[in-house]
Amino acid sequence: MELQTERAARLEYTVATATRGAAAIDIVKTKKCVFSGVQPTGDAHIGNFLGAFKYWVASQDEFENIFCVVDLHAITVYQDPATLREQTRTVAALLLAAGIDPERSALFVQSHIGAHAELAWILNCFIPMGWLQRMTQFKEKAGEDRESVSTGLFDYPALMAADILLYDTDLVPVGDDQKQHLELTRDAAQRINSLYGPTLVVPEPSIPPVAARVMGLDDPTKKMSKSEEAAGHAILLLDSPDDIVRKIKRATTDSQRDIVFDRQRPGVFNLLSIYQGFTGGSEAEIEAHFDGKGYGDLKGELAEVVVAALTPLRERYHELMNDPGEIDRILADGADRLRPIATATLKRVMEQVGLG
Ligand code: ATP
Ligand code: LTN
């Protein structure tokens, strides 16, 4: 309830001062607002954890947090309906298991709040095609097949901008791969503000200092991704200890010997970054720790660290999944708390643009 009251106060203020200059928008905030999202498109992996979830969990006291399972983004490529529904609950359970506390953070499903799709449509009308054509994620996902992928895949960043802008978000903690989408969100908000006067809060990205882009274990030149199918590519958050050990043992390295953070040696750099993401030491400390040791030692110790970090998460996940009704209740409650905020922002934008 606290979230709703504070947001309502901020919104009232924002609307009241909308014609008086962008700086005014920020004045009544007591805590910065964080928004981030994850797609329910497959099994979450340690890239998601180190690049995003870990920071979402850690910032819960410092900020006012909103975390979203972005199912509307998921359907930009075909999803089996039953699997999509199941994965939506699974990824929510994983976030709860990782430490998202529904008392301190709002957790919800994107399609449960209609304003996301509505604001995305309005933003579409202000986002030039050229901005979308430059998105590297679109180019990678569409590949050679640009003519037959969905319009939704092309327009993905407009929906992401709507997600963020609906909640007057200040900070968006994401992995490095989302930086370009954040730039587009900022540009879209600034465009609306310059055409209609201060209407939308312009958010800042928050990219982790370490392990912001975890790479595939099988191919350290490719980002670790849920949609990559090769067996040794990703360590999944629900992998068994045996699977984790096996995948790390087989990870690609190189023919050199010393264990140092060198970007020119992507395999070893990736393993060291994962180690650093889980243990938190500095590069110098980690290099000193592995001085004189071999790749076998690095892989063995890394596997131990990853198993130790993921075991409690996996156990908590299975406990939570014994009561799926409770997960659904948490998600419904999150949407109920947030809907008035999203609706108020949408209304504010509609009024400025001359709709409704
Ligand atoms: P896909 O690759 O199938 O599009 P994904 O694995 O990138 O999916 P998302 O749901 O799109 O997963 O991302 C959730 C969060 O995890 C985002 O903040 C994203 O930046 C972060 N993330 C995803 N992959 C990595 C990675 N390899 N390293 C660091 N962060 C990542
Ligand atoms: N595109 C993001 C998921 C996402 C998101 C958001 C992240 C959708 N909406 C809003 C931050 C804020 C991705 O991780 N692939």
Number of strands: 5
Return the average pLDDT rounded to an integer.
Answer: 92
Question: For this structure, what is the CATH homologous superfamily of the largest domain?
Answer: HUPs
List the ligand species.
Answer: adenosine-5'-triphosphate, L-tryptophanamide
How is the CATH topology of the largest domain named? Rossmann fold
Strand order of the largest sheet: 1-2-3
DSSP helical segment count: 14
Series of secondary-structure elements, N-terminal to C-terminal: HEHEHHEHHHHEHEHHHHH
Structural class computed from helices and strand pairing: mainly alpha
Task: Give the count of structural domains.
Answer: 2
Largest sheet: 3 strands, parallel
Q: Helix share of residues?
A: 40-55%
Query: What is the CATH class designation of the largest domain?
Result: Alpha Beta
Characteristic key phrases:
356 residues, mainly alpha, Rossmann fold, Tyrosyl-Transfer RNA Synthetase, 2 domains, three-stranded parallel sheet, two-stranded parallel sheet, 14 helices, globular, binds adenosine-5'-triphosphate, binds L-tryptophanamide
